[in-house]
């Protein structure tokens, strides 16, 4: 199947009139698999991310420490700050992420909120220019949307006080709609807040169209959660086509977009689209994961692009690493080697 994409053409002049609809092939043949093996491995890894027995076996295995050290900035805030300083010395900004999954009570949500406030104050003192990335499931959105929204407001106010910005991660669709609504509610008061948007989700085009009064700052990612086929495009080439399609729209219509990707094709598309549209290299940024394609991160900085690394830290690293391997199953080889050889 030949994948085609309805990307905006050079002849159009009104950016707001350019289409945001998904590429034609995605709407016609949304489920046709082009790489079955990749898809099967990714789905298995995503299921493994939620397997508590496997998590216990892996996290108690001393041989897994080498992999954790590569992809996680440490288990404590102090270790993460040290890693952030090293990256900033190379011209790379960071976004700190306190690892953790969905809480099931508001007490734990309050604890996570306080820890993030501490992070905001710490980065203002030690690594100014850094941001924090927060999952609203940690702030209690699975328990109470209102409580999670208030916890988010607490972080946004702390960020305002410390001149540090907050980025809202996008999670599984079970909390995705509420996450987007909480972000939308706070956007007019905190317009510099950034939200992650998943290209694989079928609702993404309409979601982006729905912002009218205040245009959001977004981090465009492909998506890293196991989803039903009626909510998510599962074929990786279709997702890449949609990612590139949304890239052009974001560069034309949104302030300071960030592109979260390690895909060479997507990176080159961002570069060429920005140059063609006259968007300065300093008016958008690439975001990548800590420990992944480090040479590429440095080369992009050398070319004059802004780069920000998503820097996770904490003890709850297992689900995070499983999803990273699901995005790029070749990372599974590194994981297996670390378990075998230490």
Write the layout of secondary structure elements.
Blueprint: H1 24-28, H2 36-49, H3 52-59, H4 65-71, H5 77-89, E1 93-98, H6 106-126, E2 131-134, H7 145-162, E3 165-168, H8 173-186, E4 194-198, H9 204-209, E5 217-221, H10 236-253, E6 258-260, H11 264-277, E7 285-289, H12 294-302, E8 306-313, H13 318-327, H14 331-341
Parallel strand pairs: 1-2, 1-8, 2-3, 3-4, 4-5, 5-6, 6-7, 7-8
Helix pairs in contact: 2-13, 6-7, 7-8, 10-11
Can you give a write-up of this model?
α7 packs across α8 (173-186) and α10 packs parallel to α11. By secondary structure, this protein is of the alpha/beta class. β4, α9 and β5 (217-221) form a beta-alpha-beta unit. Mean pLDDT is 82; it is low at 1-18 and 24-34. It is 49% helix and 12% strand. It is globular. Strands 1-2-3-4-5-6-7-8 form an eight-stranded parallel beta barrel, surrounded by six helices. It has helices at residues 24-28, 36-49, 52-59, 65-71, 77-89, 106-126, 145-162, 173-186, 204-209, 236-253, 264-277, 294-302, 318-327, 331-341; strands at 93-98, 131-134, 165-168, 194-198, 217-221, 258-260, 285-289, 306-313.
Distance between the termini: 43 Å
User: How many distinct helices?
Assistant: 14
What best-fitting shape do the alpha-carbon axes yield? globular
Largest sheet: 8 strands, parallel, barrel
Number of distinct beta strands: 8
- Spans of at least 5 consecutive residues with low confidence: 1-18, 24-34
Side by side, the strands of the main sheet go 1-2-3-4-5-6-7-8
**What Rg, in angstroms, do the CA atoms define?**
19 Å
Mean pLDDT: 82
How much helicity do the residues have? 40-55%
